[in-house]
Amino acid sequence: MLSIKKLALVFALTLLVGVGAYAVAWQFNDGKMGQKVMAYVVIGMSFPSLIIGGVMRMFRPDLQRYFAITAITCISIGLLLLFL
Fold it and tell me: How far is Cα of residue 78 from the mean position of the Cα atoms in its chain?
């Protein structure tokens, strides 16, 4: 059974990673943020979810699905931004 609270907390963690990735990309691109740069930022947001989800699979398999949901969501949105 999926818990909305746990899913929201994992999305909040992913959003925090996204804010940090956006700040770094903004700094290195001198404030010029195009659609492709944003796509790579959103795809980069999925990497911590993949790593943490892989570790959670060993210890708490029930929590791993929340990280998988956020990783799939970030990758899907990133690919949409990249190719549209």
Answer: 9
Measured distance CA(49)–CA(65) in Å, rounded:
10
Give one word for 19, left, alpha or beta, with left for phi > 0 and alpha for psi -120 to 50.
alpha
Is the separation of the CB atoms in 63 and 56 below 8 Å?
yes
Residue type, 23: A
Report whether 44 contacts 21 (CB < 8 A): yes
Number of residues in the chain: 84
pTM listed for this prediction? 0.88
* pLDDT above 70 coverage of the chain, percent: 100
